[in-house]
Design goal:
6-stranded antiparallel sheet; 6 strands; 228 residues; alpha+beta; Arc Repressor Mutant, subunit A
Length: 228
């Protein structure tokens, strides 16, 4: 069973996933990066451009999902270096420190809450740096369905500068981010019961077939399978 709640860390989401059954469901691209806890390991999930299916038998997971574009400053690494990857936190931070953090999460009654507390403490120690307002406005505009060119013009950003900043913040260019956010909008509407043809029209696809192709390319499966 999957559960989530807003985090005390601005824009972030705390979540847990305790799989039921034998098959792990794919993790879909969403424009975010996560701090993960699984089987005694602290991991970082980079930004995905395709669905990711965890290896091995289903096991409980806990995570902290960062608002798009905010995780690179937290972890100290450009997002594109982690694109489509899961890495040990110890690959990014000092091993001794990660060992202490791991022991702390291991001892916690609720690992997800422990991850949140660690993130809050790390952010306070770094000095709270507000999220880049231009990138936040970009995410908001693209999530609402604004074309990339129009959003860039409204922010006063040239194509090259926008692409460079997007790679560092999101792990890929703005067009890929827009495509992923459009997928998430379509999934939300379809899961709410909107017919697929209407979902396609509402989210800017040319037609239902276009929606189906894009879902297949990004997730490896069908919209019907994802809505179930």
């Amino acid at each position: 069973m999957y559960e989530e709640r807003p985090s005390r860390l601005t824009g972030a989401v705390v979540w847990t996933n305790t799989p039921a059954g034998t098959g792990a469901r794919p993790v879909l691209p969403d424009g975010c990066m996560d701090l993960l806890w699984n089987q005694g390991r602290l991991l970082v999930a980079g930004p995905d451009t395709r669905a990711h299916t965890p290896e091995g038998p289903p096991t409980p997971w806990a995570g902290l999902r960062f608002y798009p574009g905010t995780a690179p400053a937290f972890f100290g690494i450009p997002a594109h270096e982690l694109r489509d990857r899961r890495v040990e936190l110890a690959d990014l931070w000092p091993t001794a420190r990660v060992r202490r953090l791991r022991a702390r999460v291991e001892a916690a009654a609720h690992p997800a809450t422990a991850l949140e507390e660690l993130a809050l403490e790390h952010t306070a120690r770094q000095g709270a740096t507000p999220p880049d307002p231009e990138l936040r406005r970009l995410v908001t505009a693209l999530a609402a369905g604004r074309p990339v060119a129009a959003a860039a013009d409204e922010l006063g950003l040239g194509a090259r500068r926008l692409h460079r900043r997007s790679l560092a913040a999101f792990g890929y260019g703005p067009k890929t981010l827009a495509r992923i956010l459009r997928l998430q909008r379509a999934l939300a509407l379809a899961r709410a019961g909107l017919p697929y043809a209407d979902t396609a029209a509402r989210t800017g696809y040319a037609d239902q077939a276009h929606l189906a192709r894009d879902v297949r390319k990004l997730t490896g499966t069908t919209l019907t399978d994802l809505v179930r």
